[in-house]
Amino acid sequence: FLDDEEEYVVAEAARAINDDFQILGAMSSLAGILNKRPWESEALIRRIINANVTVGNDRTATALITYANTTSSPTAMRAEALAALGQWAKPSLFDRVDGRYRGERNKDATFVQRELGAIIPNLIAKGGTETRQAAIAATAGLRLMPAIDQLSDLLVRDADPAIRAAALTALKELEAPGLEKLLRTAMNDRNNNVRSRALALLPNSSIAPAEATKLYAEIIKDGTTGEAQAALSGLSKLSAPAAEALLEDLLGQLMEGKLPAPIQLDLVEAIELRDSSALTDRLADYETSLMTDANDLGLFATALSGGNARSGRGVFYWNSSGQCTRCHAIFEYGGNVGPNLQGVGSRLSAEEILTSVVRPSAALAPGHETVLVTLKDETALSGIVLERTPEYLKVKVGKTDSKTIPAADIEEVETLPSSMPSADGVLTRREIRDLVAFLVTQKGEAH
After folding, report:
1. Contact status, residue 129 vs residue 76, Cβ threshold 8 Å
2. Most exposed: 118, 191, 214, 431, by fewest CB within 10 Å?
């Protein structure tokens, strides 16, 4: 089937070979078709690349290098091949395609370092952003030290801010000489994403903690939201009295309602990451003050603003812990157990969306509220609320039947807990913030 003329058939064969428990005896054959012909199916190409990683010898490494260097190959898949090569010495314990645990597969990367190192300057210099970023990351993963000069030049001169940010990260991982100067260069970059990357790397640099704290304070006060968030992340890692004092001041602003909403969660996380009983005790007192009733959001309220909608899309569609699409759909993609979330951003506020995510029983969507009704004659029935008025309650009983109950006959109506699990403890607060930011954008049009 790997030789079939129909690419769909080849892709299905690749799924059978690679996924779940794998057919190890066929992995080499799957790996060998990478450069056999121009493939189009991303699902197929990812499995072929993964097979080359699994086999893991000089032949498969050469195949991946050849594919990554073929400009006619899909950009995203060239980047995937480079990402696999960058982790050649120590691949992930989990499968690159289906996430199944594969265990340690450590290999000698000498051959890959030599062969990929010979062409990596050209891959870094030319092509699309995604491929160039992957090539830059591979230099760090493979410890290709000769690339340091090229990366340093990119940080100063490249027109693409994503490339400048990637170059800075790689320089940090390669422990490039003069890293302090490179970080200062990046902090003066014209693009806020590059500046944010520099701020995130600052705690582990050679810049004095007290001076770094001053830089963070300035950014939190006058920088963009992204920069301020990165500054708080970096500040959490600084061990200095000045850093502690700055966090204490910011916590005071939060408690007084003066801290900008988009960075409130970042401050909470920064405090939680520090070993400071004084700060954590004050934060706990603040959380207690927020918990006015059983449905209050508490510190989850800090996830209402500042999220990344693009990252939230990833949480909704692909997060293995949340698994949102098992029950919910947007347009046609996803399950139908829970409400369809098409246009949810037009129907609900950010606070209502957040409440439904972390306190699902407090925010049941129409058609998804299950009640237990006790009648005055002491009989009881349960069903899904279809309509509720002062005069009657209409519930769906069983799969198709409905029953209209006069209000005068009802002794008690108890709303049963939602079948949807709370995201509390399943997703991080940051993932919840991003998910809310994504769902708020769903205004009824395809995204």
Report:
1. no
2. 118
